Amino acid sequence: MSYSQIFPSRNYTSAKELPNNAIRSLFLDSQNFLWIGTENGVVHKENKKFTHFFEENGLAMNNCWAIAEDSSKKMWFGSYGAGLSIYDGQSFIVLSKENGLVHNEITKLLHFNNKMYVGTSDGVSVVDINNFQIFSSKSTENKLFRVSSFFEYDAKIYCTTYNSGTYQIVLDSDKVSLKKINNNQYIYAAFKSNDSIYISNKEYFTKSKLTSFISDTATSPTSKQGNSIIWDYCLTSKNNMFAGAWGIYKNDGGLYEIVNNKFINRNSDFNISSKEIVSLEFDSKLNKLYVGSKDTGLYEVDMSSVIKFIPSADMDILDYATFGDTKAYLYKEVLVLEEGTKKIRLDKNILKKWEENFLRNTKMSLPKHEDYFYELDYNTSAKDIKFYDLKYYNHAFWLNTTIGVFSIKKDGTFLRYLPLHTEEFNFTAQGNFIETTPYEGVRVYTDLDKFDYTYFKKEKKNTPTMIVNSLKKGDKTYFLSIFSGLYIWHNNHFTSYLNNNIWLEKKLKHITSIDNNIAVSNESGDVFILNDEQSFNVIKKIARSKIQGNSISFLESYNGNLFIGTEKGLTIYKNDRFLFIDEEQGLKQPILSSKLEGDNLFIGSKQGYYTINLNTIEQKKPLVTKIKVNQFKINNENIPLDKIISNGEAILNYIQNTVLLTFSTNAHPYPNKLAYQYQLNSNSEWTEISSSPEIFLPYLSPKKYQVEVKVSDLSTGLHYSEVILNISILPPFWKNWWFMSAIIFLFSIGTYLFYKHKVKQNKKIEVEKGFIKNRIEEVKMEALLAQMNPHFIFNAMNSIQKYILENDPDSAVLFLGEFSKLIRKNLDHCTRPYIFMYEEIEYLNSYIYVENKRFNNSVLVELTIDESIDTYSMEIPSMIIQPFIENVFVHAFPPNVINPKLNIDFSLTQENILICTIKDNGVGISKPSKQLHKSKGILLIKERLKLLGYNVKETLCITASEKEGTSIVISLKI
């Protein structure tokens, strides 16, 4: 087993986050955000947001080899071929050879004393950051110059070059000169650390005293270390020195750590695949190491020691237990006992031999395979043995397998074998062995040597069945059933909490103790904290919605913290505070097992195991301490922040009432753990949680808003809130007090003048109202008479008489019932201007039934209703549709029409208009308008529509042609 730690890392590539996989430069700015210079653009990484900059955005050139920040927080980007780009947060300024730079190939940048030192392929330029005045000194060497690094010592600036030696840069008034210090050649990188300097050369590096290196008498160091070309150095907050190497023509590069001047490759420890590392940067606040490669993008390595992954050659770790200084690791194929450097491997062949020796020497009557309780097969080969889990009890490790239960001393010697097949076992407070089985009850062994036991039959209501987990706590032993809930062994008997109505929860899977309580999870993903000391009590239910993940794989507890493992990671709960650890912090799936070991949580996985220091996971201070507005859009137009926000407030007019805000927090080590809510005033409700840091506020009404954002940090379980902006929406001028006062004054005068005129008109209006009212009542009665015309009633009565004469009383009764129902509905509807749509449909169905009976049901009627229509809440004018259907049955289907068909369709448009389409395949008419207008019922319908306020031409459309049927479309605004 290896004890090298695998640190969690993440690889960003051109497949998603980056424009190019060649990372030439890295820089951490004053806000703790990372800038990434690639061979095809610059990237700003602000937590999980990546912003790209290219030539079309203002860069001098996409190929960026150097990045720096000046004291006014402007960013400087050195391109390899087109000079400098200076970014103030809004726009770019470009400086090139035409402006006075010594060369356009920028290799290194250094800010010092309000000056930007620019290293190029052919000299050094110094730029004043305030006025961009440039001072330059060209190389006088007749060979490749190329600045490989800058460093400062004793308030003086030095540079190393690839092929021309080391120089002091002397700035005198408006003149820059290069003073040669030594003639060291082929320097690829240099790094000052305290009073020493690391120098990278071809295939090696050296470490020298800084004072010696810059002296006039400096000689080439003789102590050469390493085996590759180092392109960048980086020192962490714990003084770990890292070097990024690329051998150019040799495959010996990668990320190295320099320990006691020795090269140690850390690629595998940090999950780095590239051997072409050319840039490094360390974030001391977030404890992250950024590694830029030339071929596979950017690597982000979490140097935190909270989670450690220890790889193992034995692959999947199923379980883990400890006994003093002895650690037991249960793998898929072997049990490993480890104490210090001593390891004992107990593979399946050894266990098989122990079983065979027991079977040869025992005098006890062995359980047989045919016994359903045991299901043991003594012929199982070693390779077919399956391990279940590992427990520590009474100074021994207990391992249950498919060939029995083994008790093993910590030195790996055999202690006891039990010919029992149990997937879950435990012990009583008196040390008795409890054997469970899914289907055949439970046995409690009082003497394992004699195999004496008490058998509890499965038929008894308190006997545990289908047990999947157990816990011994004090003088009680708990058992969880996947079907029948919680059981307990106490005072020498079992109790079923479900069957005794103590607790009715059924499908349980995991259990652990937490302080004086126990925590239990069910199959659905809920967790219950229970107290069972004096009387049973459910203290807390943690709903699955609060837990990250759907399927719980384990429960553990430590110091009042409850650890809930799922397929997504580890949720930590304490006092209504939730933390979450997943792959972002280095905890990868799958999770195969878990155990507490002192103040460390052991989590078994594939190819090794994780350890989590539980004393370091509880963050008492929030990591989020600041929220800032990044973008302000009004009516989908991006507005510069300095033009819209003043003293934390944005004042907008009434038409600028749709706002989109994007915001961000300070740099955070785990940005995917952040969730956001906002409220518009202190007394309003918080919005639903969102993973997107933006706020969309459409159609704001004129008033003042205080936009407050709350950030929930799942990596700490803490919340942070801040008012990020005050917004004032001004009312339109006509809603101001002076305008309203003027309107009221003018309205008062106008009202007085209008009153006199209105008095004269009142009598005339009252007369007209009376006439309209009387006419409405007349129209109602005429509509009733038109719809229920004597001809229709006569035909219906003839149909009833026909059924009676044909000695068909059932049909007569049915027909008479529908007819009387139709008459009642007709009388009811004619007194109401509007009826619910479901009433209209019931009325039409009754009417069609009566009419179709006369046609011997030969007319195929299809009535369809759009699913979006709520017939129980939508109202339509009464007595509107029936006359058109009557026309169909009266005129459309003479005997020569074969397969008559009537379609009635109701649909609802997005404009909330109800469309009723009535279409038949009858004979049609040659002059539809003339003949249709002869229908008194239709004339009354048009008059009713006018009285109801409808435009008849828009509401009613009738189309017909000879022998092709008639189509009527009624459009009603709902």
Task: Please give the structural blueprint.
Blueprint: E1 9-12, E2 23-28, E3 34-38, E4 41-46, E5 49-53, E6 64-69, E7 75-79, E8 84-87, E9 92-95, E10 106-112, E11 115-120, E12 123-128, E13 134-138, E14 147-153, E15 156-161, E16 166-172, E17 175-182, E18 189-193, E19 196-201, E20 204-209, H1 210-213, E21 230-235, E22 241-247, E23 250-259, E24 262-265, E25 277-283, E26 288-293, E27 298-302, E28 307-311, E29 317-323, E30 326-331, E31 334-339, E32 342-347, H2 348-361, E33 387-393, E34 396-401, E35 404-408, E36 414-418, E37 425-427, E38 433-436, E39 442-447, E40 452-456, E41 467-473, E42 476-481, E43 485-490, E44 493-496, E45 508-514, E46 517-522, E47 527-531, E48 537-542, E49 552-558, E50 561-566, E51 570-574, E52 577-581, E53 593-597, E54 600-605, E55 608-613, E56 627-634, E57 637-639, H3 641-644, E58 649-652, E59 659-665, E60 674-679, E61 694-697, E62 704-713, E63 718-729, H4 737-787, H5 790-805, H6 809-829, E64 834-836, H7 837-854, E65 860-865, E66 875-877, H8 882-892, E67 901-908, E68 913-920, H9 928-933, H10 936-947, H11 952-955, E69 956-961, ...
Parallel strand pairs: 58-63, 65-67
Antiparallel strand pairs: 1-27, 2-3, 3-4, 4-5, 6-7, 7-8, 8-9, 10-11, 11-12, 12-13, 14-15, 15-16, 16-17, 18-19, 19-20, 21-22, 22-23, 23-24, 25-26, 26-27, 28-55, 29-30, 30-31, 31-32, 33-34, 34-35, 35-36, 37-38, 38-39, 39-40, 41-42, 42-43, 43-44, 45-46, 46-47, 47-48, 49-50, 50-51, 51-52, 53-54, ...
Helix pairs in contact: 4-10, 5-6, 6-7, 7-8
